[in-house]
Structure formats: C-alpha cells, structure tokens
Amino acid sequence: MADTHVRQPWLASLTGLLAATAFAGAVALGTGTMDLGGPVTERLPFQSTVFGGVALALVVGVPMAAAAVRAAMGRPHAAELAMLAGVLLVGWIGVQLIVIRTFSWLQPAMVAAGLAVFAAGWWPHNRSTPRP
After folding, report:
1. Is 85 exposed, middle or buried (0-12, 13-18, 19+ CB in 10 A)?
2. Would you tell me how many other CB atoms lie within 10 Å of the CB of residue 108?
3. Sign of dihedral through CA atoms 47, 115, 23, 73?
4. Is 109 exposed, middle or buried (CB count within 10 Å of its CB: 0-12, 13-18, 19+)?
5. Rounded to two decimals, what is the model's pTM?
6. What torsion, rounded to 10 degrees, do the Cα atoms 63, 67, 70, 75 define?
7. CA geometry: angle at 56 spanning 51 and 110, to 5°?
C-alpha cells in the first residue's frame, strides 16, 4: 500500500473524538461512575470494571489516539493505523456482545464509526492506486 503524507484533519477529528470517548468510558468504568449492573459486571473478565476500563483504553483508545495524531501531523502510515484502529473498534464491539451479552444502541453506532474510520484509512490508498 502506498503511504500518504497528507494531513487529514477530518480523519484526525473523527479518530480523536473516538479516542476521547474511549478514554472517557474507560475512566467511567474504572472509577465506578458507570454502573453496568450486577449481571453484566459478573460476565466481565475477573468480574472487574477496572479491567474492562483498562482494556477499553488499550484496545480502542490508544490506537484511535495514535491514528488521530498521525493523521493530524500528516505522518507516514496514518492511513494504515486508522484502518487498524477501525478494525479494533469493530472487534471490540463484537467481543463485547459475546462477553456481556447485552445490547445497547451505542454498539451499532460504534460499529458504524469503526467502519467509517477503516474506510477513511482505506480511501487514500484506493484513490492513489493507478488505473489501467
């Protein structure tokens, strides 16, 4: 895949917003501000919202933040990192559905956001591919 060295403010904004929401959710889980309820908490690994918060920060927040910084600065591999971050967000939601077995309107919204981030990373590659 060809690398784009172009600043992508809209991609940086989207991934930055998703990183901020992931970190906010991680803090809310870790501090107990967000109560998932007893049955859901019991389904979490180690029955720990702190573990869930740390995992959310590491799996979703960090890759989205890294993609945001790279896209904002026009750094190499920003598009590939955005694609990875999008896949991780969609995967997070899939695992979440399997583990907590609870549905929220936020889950399809986050799947759509993850797919949008993936598509935003993929698009520069598709656009820059030479046509026969």
Report:
1. buried
2. 11
3. positive
4. exposed
5. 0.86
6. 100
7. 145
